[in-house]
Amino acid sequence: MATRTAKRSSSDDRRSAILQAAATVFFEQGYAATSVDAIIDRVGGSKRTIYSEFGSKEGLFTALVSEGADNALSMLAVEEIVGRNLRETLTQFARKLVEVYMSPMMIGVYRAIMAEAFRFPDLARAFYDRGPGRASFRLAEVLEEASKRGEIEVEDCKLVADHFAGMLRDNTHLQVVLGLRPPLGPEAIEEVAGSIVAIFLDGIQRRTASGG
Predict the structure, then answer these.
(1) Residue 169: strand, helix, or coil
(2) Do the domain assignments include residue 78?
(3) Against a cut of 0.85, is the pTM above it?
(4) Number of separate domains in the chain
(5) Is residue 174 part of a domain?
């Protein structure tokens, strides 16, 4: 059992190293110019290892996106949100998603896909479906459940989920992707997540006392 666990851990570490190297090379060279050989030069190993694990260069790119989405969506897993109110759930999800957006791996992915989307529309579609689209769909499900509990009153949960995701992918994220500022640190991520959730749930219009 210990040997099997050690092998699995070693395999996971190797997969993570390949993905990290691929993200760096995609960022530096762009998707089209990146070759599997360039990734191997960075991380070591063989083509056989990469092709057996990911199938192709496109499979490697979509695996990067899926891993980022898996990381963020872990905060919306059923076992994670049981017993939490919507504010707590959204805050945890916002924090995790902004962390993912600010990671070097996902910054590299965003830069690569923005440069190559028109040349590789299938890749762009896979990027959206595996990442942003998947996160928005799951968030819409969470909002539907909150609506049924009476926590919120929403007619189109998918539209509202898209709004929330858009708030998280804001000008700060764009500045980071463009290289105009460094990624946010943990304290700034916490502040941004809390601010976005507060605006999303409470709005910003001043409330006046009723009656009188």
Answers:
(1) coil
(2) yes
(3) no
(4) 1
(5) yes
